[in-house]
Amino acid sequence: MNASMTLTYQALQEIFVDSGAVSQEQFNTLQATKEAKELGLERVLVSRGFLSEKEVGQLMSFWYRVPFVELSKKDIRPQDVVLLPEAFARAHHVLVISQQPERVIVASSTPKDTVLRSSLEKYFRTEVQFQYATEHDLRQHFFLYQEDPDIRIQSILKRSPVPQEQTDTRVIDLIDAIIDMGYQRGVSDIHLEPEEAYLVIRYRQDGLLHDVARIPEAFHERIMARLKVLSRLATDEHRKAQDGKISHKTPWGSDVEIRLSILPTTQKEKAVMRLLSEQAQAYSLVELGLQTGDYQKIADAMEKPWGMILATGPTGCGKTTTLYAMLQVLNRREVNITTIEDPVEVDLEGINQIQVDEKTGLTFAKGLRSIVRQDPDIIMVGEIRDSETASIAINAAMTGHLVLSTLHTNDAATAFVRLLDMGIEPFLLSSTVNVVVAQRLVRKVCMNCIESVTFNGTQKKLLEKTPQIQPLLLRLAQKATVRGLRVFHGKGCKVCHGSGYKGRIGVFETLVVTDEIREAVMTKKHADEIEQIAIREGMDSMLTDGLRKALLGQTTLEEVLRVVYEEVL
Ligand SMILES: [Zn+2]
User: Fold this and answer.
1) Ligand 1 centre from 102 Cα, in Å?
2) What CATH number has the domain spanning 3-144?
3) Alpha-carbon distance 527 to 53, whole Å?
4) Is 282-565 CATH 3.30.230.10?
5) Which of 317, 279, 286 is nearest to 188 (CA)?
6) 446 C-alpha vs ligand 1 centroid, how far in Å?
7) How far is the centre of ligand 1, averaged over its atoms, from the C-alpha of 444 (Å)?
8) Based on the number of CB atoms within 10 Å of its own CB, is 481 exposed (0-12), middle (13-18) or buried (19 or more)?
């Protein structure tokens, strides 16, 4: 049961309309959506970009008249968390934040639930004080119950196999545990790598791989066989690369879609699982790091019934996630949305998704051609890689469809040059593309160990290496010199495994096709010139957006320069 579902219509109206957060009309529309009925109004406000998670939390806690807590900013100790059994915590959306001599502080998404309070007080035999945390935030922190993966895996291995069982149930439990614990931690990939005596389990979190556990080599073959069975791959194939899909359900009911890839290495097979969780869908454009002004530019383009919206950047920059977030905003019952993707990364409810299949000849171009014949309102093309796809996509955008797609270019302005190179006529291009978003992902400073620093040796050296950014940085900080200028970094702690970073956020540039840009595209101007026009007309480049985020403590200067600037240099 979602917190906002326990509140009356009138209460929600007080919280969100009377406070001026949304208009009555927006409130009524959002309240009526299927999403609001299933996930609660506060979740919809976030996913559609009306409010940030934090703003929702502040409004709710203000209404409840209890303190607001952002769990990620708290140093919550696992030994406090486990005071309450995990199953109870999950069922009632509560988490113990701290234990004091006279009371226990508990984060809850329903802090006025008196029955819940009295049962907790009976359980702890002391006073319970509630603080409000959003349900989403709570769910993100149940990982604090997690055990060390290696301890869990070793305990499964220590069990003796049941002699009568055909399959060793330990193999099944090992795979379940590896996936469950990875999902709980929010990892993106799980690697199972054969080494001499062990199969090493590694988790990729925030872009980096960590070793988490080792399983004796004797289990290698049985684990690979089990993975193949789960994904319906040929179990007797050991020499070829194979790709499959696994649908996994966690013990607490989350569905995890997994893309499995098995690769033969010189001796044994290696497996990589990519976790495509529903979490990816929940990201709204603002949560991804888009500034409100840029969000508005994209929202305007999304309201047009036809034309093209492009997301650009290198592989792994998050551009597909951005398109998914846009589709979430666009996804209403009265419109038909069809996608062609390679691969389908997240299953979106209410949207027709087609998977490219080179083997059967279903290419982007072919798929797109048949989609257009079915007359959808909105089309998402996973990527424009060739001139045939480019030309069909442009035509669809011209003939009354809103087309969303991605291009592999470094910045927004280069998207036009790339499409011209693919043989698109300048006048077609300039009249169909409405907005181009370019992006990168930077690591976020760990909120548990963040500290601010004045410009020291390291920062000054960075500026010496890239003198061009100094004026930009000073302008953003509204300072005359770097003296006294503060930036942020993470000291390193247990939460971030000593790296000082936790999570990632996008840095964006949003180029709106104005009359002057249109003119420049028509006359085949160089990308640099197009970019200059856009900046003159108010576009923040990715660098500017990144520096602003560094000044706000969302990321570090080093990270921005690493991710955005090294390609410019
Ligand atoms: Zn930290």
Assistant:
1) 29
2) 3.30.300.160
3) 37
4) no
5) 279
6) 5
7) 10
8) exposed
